[in-house]
Amino acid sequence: MKIQYSLFDTLLEPVFVLNAEQKVIYCNETAAIVCGLSVRKITRGSMKFLDLFTFSEPIDGLDKLIHVCDPTPYKEVNFQTPQGSEGKVQLTLQPVFDSMGDKNWIVFVRDVTLEERLQKKYRAELEQKEDVIKDLEDAKVQLENYSKNLEKMVADRTAELSRLNQMMTALLDSLNQGFLIFNEEGRVQEITSRACENTIEDRPQGKNIWDVLKLPEKKVDGFQKWMKTVFMEMLPFEDLAPLGPERYPHSQGNHISLEYFPLRNAEGKMEGIVMVASDITKLVEAQEQAEKDRSYANLIINMVQNKNQIGRFVRESEVMLTELHTGLKSSWESADDEALFRQLHTLKGGAALFSIQDMTEYCHTAETTLAEFKESRNADQYLKLQQESQLVQKSFEKFLDKTSEILGHKALSQERQLEIPVSKLQHTLEEMQKLPQGTAAARLVMNEFLMEPVGSFFTSYSDVAQKVAEKQEKQLNPVIFNNSEIKVLPEIYSNLFATFVHSFRNSVDHGIEMPSVREEKGKPTAGTITVQFDILRKPDVDYLQIRVSDDGAGVNPEVIRSKLTAKGVDVSKESDEQVIQHIFDSQFSTREQVTETSGRGVGMDAIKYAAENLGGTVRVVSENGKGTSLFVEVPFITELLPVKKFKAA
Questions:
Q1: CA nearest neighbour of 350 among 418, 299, 404, 415
Q2: DSSP structure class, residue 477
């Protein structure tokens, strides 16, 4: 009898059947999915197995199939398909002979990357397994009919059936899912998969299914009634199947899901129930992690959007936690259950409001223990409650750390924090000036709340300069800041200060030399950038002067003169000092090529534009070989400006 390879159609693992020329004469739907092709295209197109895959290592025996007479060991390799799929598989070659004398080879493939792709097809394919069982039953009936006439045929068919059973056992054992069948009496049949040892921790043949599933004694009767109802088929199987046990209580805490499918004979009568046990631990863990990630994202959003409410929650929770721990210090005989319940429930509600998942869960667990304590009132339960309250405290402290990292320590202040728009505060100050002695008070408030140290706007540029130096393999000392405590109004100067990033990048890129060059010039290998802030007192108006200096190579006026001449700019009558001021020209750069750091000629122009927009000036002073200084002078404005000025800044 010719082997019916359609037996493999319902398997979740890929199966290929090859002839001696490596041509695929059969593959199941799962194998076609891995290849990214249809079954028809693979089998009708005379495609060879190696036309479908490119393996990271040669497959033993594949090039000389005729010599493979025994199953080869599973070999794990990476693969790619011409359609772009890739993954890792384990595969083995198994020779198979049919009664017609034909010799083929079955390739069993375990594809660890296939699980997700087959999730949607999972239920439908399992339901098709009944067709496999039906084919086996039909084969058995045919075998019995032939046995009445010819003893030899009995022996032949028995041998054939034995090979099929061995093949089916091998196929089932290759599955990663626990597979068994139990009958109307609840007895597990002989056909099971080896994965049962891992999923339901047993070889269940011949045992009662309720014992295999470790059902508590009080649930066995209900399970037997469910089973009886299913076999009576009073209702559709699809409606009754979900009422069976959904999980197996694994001793190692693995998540094992249970699903049920009907096994029917040729007349359509149900003869057994197929149970499939799947280890979905990784899926559950991924779902739990995704839920934690969503919760953490919500927590951050709540922190940012509800800073005042977060502060209030922190203050109130600290008080309630103190009361909770104080209450739990009393003896278990005198514990105030109601007060403890109120405190835990209030803490849980606040934690849930701000998506603090760990704290919410610990509070809920403590509430459950407290409810059990109210029923039994014993020292052991009370000790457990005290321990769980400590977990609530630790989860709260963990939340405080996260809050501090995201919002800063001010968000956790014991005092209520206010956020006031600058324009509103400015309007209030303008009104204060109208009061007797209000001008002095307004200036005091402005200096305290509106003005900030000028250095706070420049400290981050030290990191910018260091990163440029590291990328260019140069050495740079920390930037030196002098008189950085001078206070300014951010709304006036923030645009100007933002452009200074170009100055620091240029100081490293154009100014500071490579360590070997500096050493040859007798300089320290590490360059230095210094920022000096000063108030220049002038008759008409005071000026804020910002000077950024480096001890680098300086600006070579001849290079700039050559660049300008090449562009058609006449600088023949300009001094060297005048020539180097052209570095502020729009789109002027001494770089031949544009780099990530410089070369577009925009940076210095941006500084000049921002300074002149405030009524200020810029200039550069450089000594070739010794360094360069950028001077920016703008009016030092400390007078109160109209509200609209702040809005425009």
A1: 299
A2: P
